[in-house]
Amino acid sequence: xxxxxxxxxxxxxxxxxxxxxxxxxxxxxxxxxxxxxxxxxxxxxxxxxxxxxxxxxxxxxxxxxxxxxxxxxxxxxxxxxxxxxxxxxxxxxxxxxxxxxxxxxxxxxxxxxxxxxxxxxxxxxxxxxxxxxxxxxxxxxxxxxxxxxxxxxxxxxxxxxxxxxxxxxxxxxxxxxxxxxxxxxxxxxxxxxxxxxxxxxxxxxxxxxxxxxxxxxxxxxxxxxxxxxxxxxxxxxxxxxxxxxxxxxxxxxxxxxxxxxxxxxxxxxxxxxxxxxxxxxxxxxxxxxxxxxxxxxxxxxxxxxxxxxxxxxxxxxxxxxxxxxxxxxxxxxxxxxxxxxxxxxxxxxxxxxxxxxxxxxxxxxxxxxxxxxxxxxxxxxxxxxxxxxxxxxxxxxxxxxxxxxxxxxxxxxxxxxxxxxxxxxxxxxxxxxxxxxxxxxxxxxxxxxxxxxxxxxxxxxxxxxxxxxxxx
Length: 472
Known about the structure:
Blueprint: H1 4-66, H2 72-93, H3 99-124, H4 127-214, H5 230-271, H6 276-292, H7 295-312, E1 319-321, H8 322-340, E2 344-350, E3 358-360, H9 364-376, E4 383-391, E5 395-402, H10 409-417, H11 434-445, E6 451-456, E7 460-468
Parallel strand pairs: 2-4
Antiparallel strand pairs: 1-3, 4-5, 5-7, 6-7
């Protein structure tokens, strides 16, 4: 299967290759023109330089004839070496087979020779000889100047031809650039329209089908896309997804009414589970304390009982804040502390910033009651129940910990799998078992993992609630 990315890369490399070929062609052509122009310019400079050096050497030769002891004698040899060097360059820049260049080269040799003879006879003080050679030197210098002008004229004529050729080449080059620009734009527009149509048309089909799904039409005509890239896979996946959504919606509709009835029945059942045994024990305790004490402790105890009953008899399917649940647990601790004195100890470690979260009513008290009844009450030496509330990035964590009798491993495993009866670990005051608390939390938060249970026989039990913070 081809991919959209692969197609884009192929098109990119094709255009990049074409532009590289054009760029290399332009570079080679420009390099050739520049080289030709540079060679012509160097020849002009060389001819002009030879003419100037020849004239300078002729003057220095004449100056030596007039005054052999002058400073021009030292400069003469330097100028002569420079002229010889330029003479050697002449054969490098010009065609050696050109007879005019050969004549010009020989003329320079003659000039240098006559100049040397003139200087030599000056030092021998042979006036007749150096006079003759000086005259020949000046004649040769004049010929060099004339020949240089003739060669420059020939070079200018050739340069004119080169210039015309360069102008013609520039015209062709301009036409090529215009043709390349028009062709490139046309190809770019063609490929852009062709490629974008191949993408936008299937995407529009998918967008139209997605709009139908958003409006609730799950039985629309399947999207048909005939391509060999990701868009065909996307259309097939979309069609499968729409069919799966339709099937799941039908299943949800079939079960939603039954789930609603089951939840209502379960909550009403929980609301009616009030065990009078706890009330009898509490009232008996209040009676004894009223007899033995003044009215202050009794009043506090009665207030705690009233708060506890008011909370327990509230609307079971309504939510409360975690702070309200903690206050009820504190009242419950106060009642049990008065009943059992030093046999039971209660410990709090609460992060106050966590208490504004909403929880189902009767969440903490049943857990604390279970810890007391099934963990501490039957333990002769008593024990400690701890309530810890803290938070992580994702959860408010509530730990109810006791150091009581603990549970057998088999019973713990059954409790973790929620296979035991709903009345397993039922409190006296609420009649609500641990599994009912967990189930209501699952319904309330619409999450399965809301509790963790740890227990060891003879060492106590720890129940941890994981309350999602995204519901805060």
